[in-house]
Each structure stands twice: as C-alpha cells, then as structure tokens.
Design brief:
This protein is of the alpha+beta class. It has eight helices and twelve strands. The termini are far apart.
C-alpha cells in the first residue's frame, strides 16, 4: 500500500501506552484513514499523528481528554481553516498517495475527482446513501424530495463566496464532535504547538499551553469547506460559535453562509439514514425540504 509517511511519528519516539490503536474490519479502511490523517496533518499540527498502520489496525498518538475551553474551540476553528486552505486537486480527490477507496465510518464512498462541486456532492455523496436508505426501507419519500434537492443543488450557480469553481478545500469529511477531541498528547515527544498557545484568560480559564484541539478519524477528500462546518452544527459541539469565530479569523465566510448549512447536511443525514435507521430518514427528508425551499 502506498501511504504518505512523511508525517508519521517514529516508533522510537513513542513509548508503550502513548498510542491509541483502533481495530477495523474493512479491507483498506486503516490505510485510507492513515492517508487522510497524514494529508490533513501536512496542513496542521492539530491532527493526530500516525504511528503505525496494518491491514486491520491503525495506531495514532494518544490524547488525554480534557474539558473543552473557548480558547481551544477557537483554536480548532483556526486550524480547520488552515487545513481547508491547503486545498485539494479537485472535488472528490482522495488524500495524497492514496488511490481509494474512501470510508465514512464503516461505509465505503466514492472519491472520483470532479471539477464541479455540486455534481460531485450529489452523485458521490448524497444520492448513493439516499438510495441505500430507500432500499433498506429507512426513508419514505414518495415525492422524491431528496432527489429534487439534489437537482436544485446541481442547477444552482455557486458563487465564489461559497465555493470558488474548481477550487476544492482539503476537508475532514466526517467532522462530528466525536472526531474533534480536546486534550493533551500523552507523549511529550509529540506535543504540538499552535498559533494560539499564548492565549490568555478566557471566561476565567487559561488555555495557553494547555487544552488543545485534535482532529481524528477523517473521511478526508477534496470538498466544500462548509461541509465540515455544517456537520459540526448538525450534531453539535462545545463552544461552536468560538469554533466559527476562529475559523473566520483565517478564512472569512459569506454573510449568508449559515443559510446553506442544510445543503451540506444532506450527506451525513443520508449516511445515518442508511446506517442508523428511519429516525434519520425523517431528518433527511426534513433537511431536503429545507434545501428545496432555499434553492427552489
């Protein structure tokens, strides 16, 4: 397997107990995750480092969890914006050095490079999982509202304030709150620094050199940056407004960017409608209705 290794941590620098090892069943899943972590990590030190990877395991630097702080949340936004700005060759591009497949959780998803974001997003992200959810009986959509939403997305003119034509962001791709950790590395050998290390008191808390954000478990690919932000909003994350503030200090967003959040929530809701059942099918239909109202 060809995996980018320039950001891997030498085993000699990591003692026993300083790594987290995850076991996976799907062939290539561990290698895909390792490639994604290395690709994102090339743009930010706040991505956990890959220590080792095999057919069924991936080991990364271990993080001691801590309570999030507002300063750490703001730092998360700063680092996420830097990752996005590192870019990708095209929408749907897999991580550098990894030809695919791409995984979101346990599910395989396509990563076929496409210069058109709307086409990539609807045909490779939303519709495949929507159809699987329909086949599983997890969504009742006789009016094909989700398909109508995708048609409107594909037909819309996406201004550069939202996504520049042909300019893909380097996105995490599965950024729910469980994949944004707050804490400290167990190993001081791999302790990372951020631009906000010297942040002072914030609401009675001091974060300088303390609690930091760490990104884990990506489904990394070339995509729309606001997709990551919308997923954080979908499932909720501590101090989310501070995340957004930090993000916009590096990569400003359009004034109406929040109006388009439902567009970007179609994919994770379609995945969950397939994997987690009808309750998410209802949420997917509600979200698609919002998209039709927005773009129709």
């Amino acid at each position: 397997h060809s995996i980018v290794t320039s950001h891997d941590v030498p085993l000699s620098d990591v003692a026993q107990g300083e790594v987290f090892t995850k076991h996976v069943d799907q062939p290539d899943s561990a290698y895909a995750e390792a490639a994604g972590l290395n690709w994102l990590g090339a743009a930010s030190p706040q991505v956990v480092k890959v220590v080792a990877v095999s057919d069924h395991t991936i080991s990364t630097t271990k993080i001691t969890p801590e309570r999030p702080t507002r300063a750490a949340a703001e730092a998360a936004g700063v680092e996420l914006a830097r990752i996005h700005l590192a870019g990708a060759p095209a929408f749907g591009s897999p991580p550098l050095g990894w030809p695919g497949p791409n995984f979101i959780g346990t599910q395989i998803q396509a990563c076929e490079p496409d210069p058109d974001w709307a086409r990539f997003y609807t045909t490779q992200r939303v519709l495949p999982f929507y159809r699987k959810a329909m086949d599983a009986g997890n969504i009742h959509d006789p009016e094909r509202t989700v398909e109508r939403a995708c048609e409107l997305i594909a037909a819309a003119t996406w201004e550069s304030a939202h996504v520049a034509p042909g300019v893909a962001g380097r996105i995490h791709g599965d950024l729910w709150s469980g994949n944004l950790l707050y804490g400290r590395p167990v190993s001081k050998n791999v302790l990372t620094e951020t631009a906000l290390d010297d942040a002072g008191a914030d609401n009675g808390e001091v974060d300088g050199g303390g609690v930091k954000p760490f990104f884990i478990d990506p489904a990394a690919h070339g995509g729309h940056p606001e997709t990551d932000l919308a997923m954080l909003a979908l499932f909720g994350t501590p101090f989310i407004e501070d995340v957004f503030e930090g993000y916009q200090s590096v990569r400003p967003l359009a004034d109406d960017w929040r109006d388009f959040i439902p567009v970007h929530q179609l994919h994770p809701l379609a995945v969950h409608a397939f994997t987690h059942g009808p309750s998410y099918g209802h949420e997917l239909l509600r979200c698609a209705t919002d998209v039709v109202r927005l773009l129709g």
